[in-house]
């Protein structure tokens, strides 16, 4: 690539297409996600059915690395307590 050339790689294009496929009409922001992330983690550990709120948390976690990191830390704590 020449200097200043802003072309995307095929991996970047694939990642963008994947992310677009995960979007919905109404999505949680980070604050909304974190309000429900403990409920999501508990449902995941107990294999409980997914509610609409839980599905929104799951969808946000697929797109947001910061919230996913918070979820993973919480899940480790919950798993250690079992």
Instruction: Indicate the proportion of strand residues.
Output: under 5%
- Helix/strand structural class: mainly alpha
Helical content class = over 70%
Indicate the low-confidence ranges by residue numbers. none
* Mean pLDDT score: 85
Measured between the Cα atoms of the first and last residue, the distance is 53 Å
Succession of helices and strands: HHHH
* Cα Rg: 16 Å
Number of helices: 4
Shape: elongated
Please provide the count of β strands: 0
Give the biggest beta sheet: none
Question: In words, what does this structure look like?
Answer:
The protein has 82 residues and is mostly helical. It has a domain of 53 residues. It is built from 4 helices and no strands. Helix 2 crosses helix 3, helix 2 runs parallel beside helix 4 and helix 3 crosses helix 4. The longest helix has 17 residues. The protein is elongated and about 50 Å long. The mean pLDDT is 85.
Which SSEs are present, and which pair or pack?
Layout: H1 10-22, H2 30-46, H3 52-63, H4 65-80
Characteristic terms for this protein:
single chain; 82 residues; mainly alpha; 4 helices; 71% helix
Can you summarize this structure?
By secondary structure, this protein is mainly α. The protein contains four helices and no strands.
